[in-house]
Structure formats: C-alpha cells, structure tokens
Specification:
Layout: H1 2-38, H2 43-75, E1 78-80, H3 85-93, E2 98-102, H4 114-126, E3 130-136, H5 141-149, H6 155-171, H7 175-178, E4 181-186, E5 193-197, E6 200-204, E7 217-221, H8 225-236
Parallel strand pairs: 2-3, 3-4
Antiparallel strand pairs: 1-7, 2-5, 5-6, 6-7
Length: 237
C-alpha cells in the first residue's frame, strides 16, 4: 500500500510541477513583453502591451482549464475485444520506466509469440525499465479453483512452464539487468489481470469458461480509479 501511495504522489507531483512550470513560463513571457513595451513608443508599444496582456489571460486560463482536461484524460477508458499480444509487446519494448504483469499463468510466454515478448522484455530492461511479473502459485488452492473454471486448460502446468521460461530468461541477463527483473508468485484468489507499461495498462477480470486473455480488456490510465484499484491489489499481493 505504501508503494502505491508513493507512486501516486510522485505522479501527481510531476503533473503539478509541469503545470506550474507552464504557468510561470507564460507569466514570465508576459512580463518580458510588458517591460519591453514600456521602453518603446508608438505602434510597437501598443502591440507589445496588448500581446503581453493577452498572454496573462492565457496563463490563467491554462491554470484553470488544464486540470480539467487532465482529469478527463485520466478517466478515459478504451475497450479492446481481445488481448493483442503483438501490440502489448510493442508497448513493453517502448516503455520508459515500468512494466508490470499480474496474471495466473501468462499466455505471452506460450506459443509463437513467446520469443517476441521476451525480446521486448530484454529491450525494456536494456533501457533501464523495471519489470515486475506476478503469477499465481501453481500449487495454491486458487490455482486449482481456476483450473476448474477453465477446463480443460491445465493451469498448474501453464504456470510451471511460465516460471521455467522466466527463470531461463533471468539467467541469460547480466547481474545489473537481473536486478531490475522481478518475478513473484501469490496464493490469493486472483481478482484482476493487469498488463502495464508506464502509466497505462490493459486490465481484465477472470471470466468463467475461458482464459482471461480471450476476454475483453480495458485500456486505462493508472491514475484512474480502476488503475489505482488494480495497482493497489498488485502491491498487496
């Protein structure tokens, strides 16, 4: 919980810092034009004073309107009918700071798309990104329950194979890079399925009868209520 709050506060401070910098920058430009206008005469003076006064209005409008647009941006949700493996791998490869995955057993580590996903992880790690993977404990009661829900998928076998692939991948990394690659397991009932890159994520829940990867996903900003809820669940687990 403390990690979640700290991350939220850092995001809010960065956003407020950018907004304050923009506001002060406009005021500084306005002050410069008004000062310049006082030192000249005629048409140039009138022009500079008018532009300087207009920029003051723009600065205060920006300070009022920008937070409203930011809230609208954060609350925007886009629905995807299915999980696009190739697109998510591209997001991972282009991540700037953080990649987080929370799943039971991840389909990204299966089949023909596995190598593409692992290449994307390697690229992200090479760019200094922190990668965190959270999978269900294959020997937990929750794994057995999930196996009942999506028969004939062998959930335990999928997770064990995932962990083996991730271990092989970790062993291929140098010591410094390996320190930014974290894999954990949890034994609580799974509540959400999250695939995050930087400040956005694909989120779904666990339907009965099919794997979560086959269900619709919501693309949200992590600063939204849903994003914050799933991030808190990730940190708790």
């Amino acid at each position: 919980m403390g990690t979640r709050i700290a991350g939220f506060l850092r995001r809010r401070l960065r956003w407020r810092g950018r907004r304050l910098a923009g506001f002060l920058g406009l005021l500084a430009l306005s002050a410069a034009l008004l000062t310049w206008g006082r030192g000249v005469t005629g048409y140039n003076q009138e022009l500079l004073l008018n532009i300087g006064a207009s920029i003051v209005i723009v600065a205060f409008s920006y300070a009022i309107v920008d937070p409203l647009f930011e809230e609208l941006r954060r609350s925007r949700v886009e629905e995807h009918p299915r999980f696009d493996d190739e697109e998510f791998s591209a997001h991972v490869a282009g991540a700037a700071s953080l990649v987080s995955i929370m799943d039971t057993g991840s389909h990204l580590l299966e089949g023909s798309g596995r190598d593409r996903f692992l290449r994307a992880l390697r690229t992200a790690l090479g760019n200094g990104v922190l990668v965190r993977v959270l999978l269900l404990d294959p020997d937990s009661a929750a794994a057995s329950q999930r196996a009942e829900e999506i028969r004939p998928v062998n959930v335990r076998e999928v997770i064990v194979d995932n962990l083996r692939r991730l271990n092989e991948f970790a062993e291929s990394l140098d010591a410094e890079t390996r320190g930014r690659f974290q894999v954990r397991i949890y034994d609580a009932s799974p509540t959400a399925h999250m695939f995050r890159w930087d400040d956005k994520a694909l989120i779904s829940f666990f339907p009965i009868g099919v794997r979560a990867s086959a269900a619709p996903h919501l693309e949200v900003f992590m600063g939204s209520p849903l994003g914050e809820f799933v991030e808190s669940r990730f940190d708790e687990l």
